[in-house]
Amino acid sequence: xxxxxxxxxxxxxxxxxxxxxxxxxxxxxxxxxxxxxxxxxxxxxxxxxxxxxxxx
Length: 56
Hints:
This protein is largely without helices or strands. About 10% of the residues lie in helices and about 0% in strands. It has one helix at about 30-35. The termini are far apart.
């Protein structure tokens, strides 16, 4: 770790982007993709099981 206070040598952040092994050959039609929020079926993960979650 850099202990001096020189802002030119300090790092703000670093990114990690994992490699995806998917081929992404299948895609949704444009109107369906807009409704689902993604064009790739493999990335479509709907939130399920929330009925009654806020009823306490």
